[in-house]
């Protein structure tokens, strides 16, 4: 399960934007590890540096120094649509009649093919199959007839889907959030300028202050001289479709998204989990690191249960790991997460995680804990079951890989071998976020999306129990 | 502060040892990230593969497949003495009259130069300036006149310092621990063989069981057919000089060292910390990840104090990070550890860490918490002040860099800007380890070493307050 | 002085085109070492692989195997206009309304900016500042209204400059040569298909036969089934502007270009050189490797002069060479070309090269030969003096760097320190090529170009003697 | 067929030796491309830098600047005995009782195992299985009892085989050549110091003058202050065993070895070839580049035959070349060497090369020339048939791979498909080198070696015609 991108935009009074953009991307690194890029403008021309790899590897000091100008945008990427190669790394830069344009995109258009076809019918040729080039071409075309704000408005009228965009057009930097606010974007003030970014933690990194979230359908234009910003409500906002998984999984705990501090939301989800399906046990422990805040909240309100780390995470287990045999593949979980016997042996254990996707890791963890001597293993999950894929910009898994796509909670419990299993209800999620179900995108836990997804029906040919009901296994 | 090596040795009944050795090294990766190596023997000849870099990068599947034989040793390295280049990576292999020899060494000899000079006077020539080559040459010489056990005994009679060694001589694998047991080494049983390793977590990774620690001065010889082992007490054991920092900092929490589970020791050190210098505050929070277990123990026995994560760690901050200006260098701490405002703002905070070396990070964290709105910041450290360098195999810092080398606790408190500061007493450490002060190496916290360190006196020309007294700042 | 690209196109009956394209690119490697790429089509979709570096480094066996289809094009590149980075490597691929398109381009458009502006005014956005993207967009636009042949005809009506193109549109492969035939392109037959390529040596590599040169203004369309080809004379051919430097310097000696075998042309230029300015000397020697064929021809007709290798070339001197001081920089020529004393000492020497660009190497060689004991050093150059830059696709040097831009032959002789110096006349070049001056592009040796080069006048503000007159130094 | 190493040593008056050593290694690059290294000494300590790869890749400017001192040695390596990895790269450095020692070795010891065993019996342990470590250990042992000259004398009394050594012991640099002078070594003077090197071309590169060859059995000691040198005849010289293949193949044409300029020797061998087995043909052409000087000499004395380049060499064909099928493997020769039709078609051709090892390339070239229309292809080889492997430091091929090991000249002619084939006689080689057969090592062309090669007899179990007789195929 991967977040698919992080974006940033910045305008400073008289300092080069390259280093601050670099630090901001470092703070957003968890949102994309495949490529990193920065585009700046110095009033005369556009500069760009985009490379595959982590932020720290993609830039050298010299590369930063060659990115002249006090305004710029940046991007970290995990591939959405479009293939995973160098040509799809962002920001996406083009030159056209009225100058130069750079785009950073987080999200997923659902009508990209249709818009591309329309543009192609007008003679456009595309070098990639990504959404972002489609937006860039449409903007370039609209900019023939008007200014940037007007052009973005027209493009927003044509594209549908989720997007948080930062755009640089010559020395103008703007940020735009889709009319439903699906992907996060916020505005902050630093000492000598303004910042637009996917997460407020990037503003903290620059010793700045979060001003507010960009509103769904709003465009924020940063003044090129770094002294202020202007808001344009390009699309009327009627309801939201915020992605609740940003809070559950993707975003950093220290970020504030749509007015909620992620860490506090997770603690609260943990408390709700105890309220809805608390179970007596000797010890409650998180799956590190994802379940830690949930477990903290759960333990806080649970009476008498000891909170302890019961699984040691090996931080060196990375992509380069040789697993030649099936035997070894199973052992990999012991390399990655080893039980701390003293907190497990002879005890009943409640294991807290944020979500279950395929179920493989959960199955292995339950087994590992049993082997380490756990009397009982209860799993509690700080979100509802994931029953359907995400079409809005998150790489979860295909429907057939999702353990909850066609299984009841009891069936999942049996599959992973836990003594009991409980998920959190959707209502609890809404409560923790202090909003209504209607203002959340719940596609992955209900199968009902805020947009008509092309081919979604065809994709949905698996049998499964009624969705969103009774998230607690009967075994509890 | 870096642990300087991890070692492993193994003998299996009829499976190639290469993959299990690789997994064991993966489990020991935290003990050395500069190089990794494996030496095996198939009864006819010795095979080796040693490379710079992490375990996952140093080996390919093909490299493992070419390491034939059911017995072998392995090593991960952070450089001790000797320069940091490829030639000093281990295991160190030599061929000599009686066959081939491979050595993996964790520790530091204090009379390496003297032994080298003696060997040189007999005509030996050395390709490196490392300890390990000295041991290898001495062993090779002793093996002219006797068997392996006898040769190791003679070599142990000549070398002084800390060492945990795994040695492969043709198809014999042995493990040896120095007579004071300064560096850890333990013995385990897996399904089809026996394992010697720096930490028991490596045995867990192979689904095995820890049998026991190797005793100070003991040599364990694994049967070449993987069916058993023999113990030889080569040096009489009178007292120990176990490194307590293994428990405080270096070892994995899930390892058992000298009969103590590291995680439990840290929890207990946290509890002792509350007993000795507990302070009322709204919230207690760890410096992640090093202070977490300490903070858990502290919070467990502290009444009414909320345990929370207050600092978010950016796991992507690595070695490749551009910090061109002093300004940016200070900001680096915000990139690495960002406060979670809700758990800090308007609150009194107790921040728990395992140790303070230079004090730079502590200073920055206190400042970061104050900027995030903390009313007060109390620091509690789960170990005594580090007043002197380690000469026994840990890369701490030079004496002049140690903040506690010439400062009282109150002076350190002032330096780092905390409202109060307390370290743990040496007695509390001994209690937590269920041993006496006399059986611990306390050199780094007392300046008195279990061995005469050459040039240590010359090195000690800094004024400092009496050592080991009153670890609590008067401000508390 | 660098050739700027090599192109190839291929259609086979039923074998994958990837390997043959790879071998063809290997044969064209001398025309571009910065990047290499192949685009194929299997009837359903287009595949591409483009990487920086030499052909041998850019492709792996797996990369070739994933390039499905019996038709394809390829490219090796030395950057023309456009920056030297990954995004400008070719073939340039786009998808558009009617399918997919790949282009390989050798040459240089002189009105690229104007065409780009026109397309931008219609809303096109460009990801690079290269010529080739302009051609691709224009083609894509023209393909809205017609077939490929018609679209290329229209595009050719808009673009001006030098070009040899191979184009793949879905499974159709075509080759086009500009109306003046400035850059070479030829057609060949191999066992199971047809090949279009910059040089016939690539056809030899595939054990095929050269059919003929593509005519200026002609388009050759390869049948998708590999069984034949069709010719379309898209622009009427009135006169040629063949680049004579292909014969003098760039092309392989074993290639046939515009009906002339390059090796024979060079031998003939050498013979002409003797006719025009032969000088008595003990020995005649080439500057290796460039002057070898010229010297062979010269020596063949010279009476009594001994032909010998007098300079030894170090083939390992490459790009990674450390030259920290001016002193060392001068020594570099001795590393690269060392005299063989026996053929130089005490002798009068005629040194033959193909051209002089900056004059630095010539100066050093004369000095090196004198130090080795040469009694006299006569230089003979197998081409006229280069007095002006190339705007048609060759990277020669800027005007101010050209030694002949503002010097008479006598002044050059003095500069390089030779006893005598003679260039070849333009008429001799025309004779050797068996054509008229009017059918050659002589821009670099006359300063008069077959096209109006924008900004060429401004560029030409250096004083120089009358061009094209008296190529022989008075000293002879 | 590969030369196996190049060595250099240097002492300068007051300039750092690092850069001159680097340039010298660049000039010796053809003698070894696997690794490169330099060891220097500044009067206080030894510095070294050894890396895998070409000279230009192995050193950076910074690496050179860190090699302090005015004296040093260097090495380029193609692996002799010992495995091909980083640990066997040279110079080989050791520290021992009396200081530090670095060795660069070209050659091959035939009793290395025996000497190693003797040292091992005294307790020595070896990190590699290379000759050079054996020499280093023996020297270190001998240096216990005496000075460097005395120690080298003793070591020379124990080792047997071929060697040209440069040795640095603290700030003393010496060069030694084995008593038979098998491998080359010479002495030169540069502006500010003295140089010992495998080939005089390296002295030219430094603008120096060759003084003379080091004599067989002689040691030259360079004064540490760069102002002179002293000669010690350590072993009496009775006869020589110079390697004639240095002149035929390995050495640079511009080097002088044992008083003969290599280029002139090759020209003379070509002339002798015409005398012994000249054949009428329309054209004589070299296999580039190895046969060029031979062909030049041949053509010079041949009446009426045209000398021409008939094969074009593709200089980009390197190690990274994909050849998936047998078909492609055969084609590789066309990629590497393409015929120039005009010089081949309809003509009788004499193709000149320096030697035939396996015969594969010769077979392909004959075929390629026939396909290009040659009426007849006569091969003439500038050396006698290679009938046995080299045990003295050259990597030729195993006996079973040598086409001439068990075939008569006529059988070889048939195998490669030439119309006629002739080798040069051994007497002609001796004449060209102005020496007697007795002073040459002719092992590879007679099977009789100047030393008793262990296991050579066992190796020689192939039937072959009488050796050294009648090198001309009856077909001529």
UniProtKB/TrEMBL annotation, chains A, B, C, D:
Gene3D superfamilies: 3.40.50.2020, Glutamine Phosphoribosylpyrophosphate, subunit 1, domain 1 (3.60.20.10). Residues 454-476 are annotated as: Disordered. GO terms for biological process: 'de novo' IMP biosynthetic process; purine nucleobase biosynthetic process. SUPFAM superfamilies: N-terminal nucleophile aminohydrolases (Ntn hydrolases), PRTase-like. Mg(2+) binds at residues 290, 353-354. Its EC number is 2.4.2.14. GO terms for molecular function: 4 iron, 4 sulfur cluster binding; amidophosphoribosyltransferase activity; magnesium ion binding. Binds 1 [4Fe-4S] cluster per subunit. Its cofactor is [4Fe-4S] cluster; Mg(2+). Pathway: Purine metabolism; IMP biosynthesis via de novo pathway; N(1)-(5-phospho-D-ribosyl)glycinamide from 5-phospho-alpha-D-ribose 1-diphosphate: step 1/2. InterPro entries: GATase_2_dom, Ntn_hydrolases_N, PRTase-like, PRTase_dom, PurF, PurF_N. It catalyses: 5-phospho-beta-D-ribosylamine + L-glutamate + diphosphate = 5-phospho-alpha-D-ribose 1-diphosphate + L-glutamine + H2O. This is Amidophosphoribosyltransferase. It comes from Halocatena salina. The lineage of its organism: Archaea, Methanobacteriati, Methanobacteriota, Stenosarchaea group, Halobacteria.
């Amino acid at each position: 399960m991967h977040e698919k991108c992080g974006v940033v935009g910045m305008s400073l009074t008289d300092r080069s934007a390259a280093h601050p953009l670099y630090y901001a991307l470092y703070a957003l690194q968890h949102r994309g590890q495949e490529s990193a890029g920065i585009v700046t403008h110095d009033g005369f021309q556009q500069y760009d540096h985009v490379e595959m790899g982590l932020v720290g590897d993609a830039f050298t000091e010299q590369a930063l120094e060659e990115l002249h100008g006090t305004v710029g945008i940046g991007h970290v990427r995990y591939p959405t649509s479009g293939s995973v190669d160098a040509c799809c790394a962002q920001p996406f830069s083009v030159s056209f009649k009225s100058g130069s344009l750079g785009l950073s995109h987080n999200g997923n258009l659902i009508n990209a093919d249709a818009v591309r076809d329309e543009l192609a019918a007008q003679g456009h040729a595309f070098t990639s199959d990504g959404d972002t080039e489609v937006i860039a071409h449409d903007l370039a075309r609209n900019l023939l007839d008007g200014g940037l704000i007007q052009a973005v408005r027209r493009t927003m009228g044509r594209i549908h889907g989720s997007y948080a965009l930062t755009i640089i057009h010559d020395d103008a930097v703007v940020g735009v959030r889709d009319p439903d606010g699906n992907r996060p974007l916020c505005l902050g003030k630093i000492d000598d300028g303004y910042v637009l970014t996917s997460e407020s933690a990037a503003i903290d990194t620059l010793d700045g202050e979060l001003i507010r979230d960009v509103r769904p359908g709003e465009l924020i234009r940063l003044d090129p001289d770094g002294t202020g910003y202007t808001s344009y409500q390009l699309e009327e906002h009627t309801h939201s479709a915020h992605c609740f998984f940003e809070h559950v999984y993707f975003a950093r705990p220290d970020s504030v998204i749509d007015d909620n501090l992620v860490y506090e939301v997770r603690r609260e989800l943990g408390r709700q989990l105890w309220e809805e399906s608390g179970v007596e046990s000797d010890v409650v422990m998180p799956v590190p690191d994802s379940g830690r805040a949930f477990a903290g909240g759960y333990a806080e309100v649970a009476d008498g249960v000891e909170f302890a780390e019961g699984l040691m995470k090996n931080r060196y287990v990375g992509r380069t790991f040789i697993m030649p045999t099936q035997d070894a593949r199973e052992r990999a979980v012991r390399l990655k997460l080893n039980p701390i016997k003293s907190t497990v042996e002879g005890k009943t254990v409640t294991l807290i995680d944020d979500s279950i996707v395929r179920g493989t890791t959960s199955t292995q963890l339950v087994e590992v804990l049993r082997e380490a001597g756990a009397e009982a293993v209860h799993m509690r999950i700080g979100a509802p079951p994931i029953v359907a894929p995400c079409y809005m910009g998150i790489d979860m898994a295909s429907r057939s890989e999702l353990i909850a796509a066609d299984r009841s909670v009891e069936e999942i419990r049996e599959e992973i071998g836990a003594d009991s299993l409980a998920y959190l209800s959707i209502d609890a999620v809404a409560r923790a976020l202090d909003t209504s179900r209607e203002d959340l995108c719940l596609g992955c836990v209900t199968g009902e999306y805020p947009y008509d997804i092309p081919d979604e029906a065809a994709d949905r040919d698996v049998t499964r129990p009624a969705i969103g009901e009774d998230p607690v296994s009967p075994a509890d």
